[in-house]
Specification:
It contains ten helices and nine strands. With about 240 residues, the chain is an alpha/beta fold. The protein has a nine-stranded parallel beta sheet with strand order 5-4-3-2-1-9-8-7-6. Helix 5 runs parallel beside helix 6.
Amino acid sequence: MRFFVGLHQVSDAKHFEAAFISVNRLRNRKSHFQVKDWIMDSGAFTEVVRHGGYRFPVSEYASHIKRFASCGTLLAAVAQDYMCESFVLEQTGKTIKEHQDMTIERYDALMSEDVGGVYIMPVLQGYDPQDYVNHVKAYGKRLKHGAWVGVGSVCKRNSNPKSIEAVLLAIHQARPDLRLHGFGVKTTGLGSSIVSSLLETADSMAWSYGARVQGRSGNDWREAEVFRSRIESRQVQKNLFI
């Protein structure tokens, strides 16, 4: 599993081999920045939780993808999904099925835009394992063989790795060819050999919260580096037993 460090400060990306950066950090940026391999996040959580949906059209996101595609190696831009945790559903007043349908609609719209050839990462949404299987089926032929696909609505389950395992195993059983990315999967979740073996990639910004709780800076890239090192060394140890 390859780990992408979630960052607040775009200027810190140059310190890492793999970074995860939200479009919200780039929207008002005028200049390019130094970065190696990276993934652009759609900022979905902020948009949907705070505003009940997306304030900007798909074309606006596409323009940012194309504009920053020449910075380092932009491996993927995450599609604009709708999370399915209960508190998010309460915010929008919609069902899991409606959020899944809107996620696919937003993906289709982005795929029709000019994004400079950048790979658009589709996102699977749901809550129970079967929800994710249903979403795989709903995507249909859009999910080509070996597609790199994000798994949403798991970041709040890190205290219960078994629930993350159940979701990933269900997706794997339905489509073992898919390469899965885990959004916001923390050390507890990655401590499961099942989780770490089923994920191709993952990201997290948990280092920032942990630093703040312990009275340190939540914006210091060196805190992120310590976290990254701990994640990757733990991953090596776990893989020895898979």
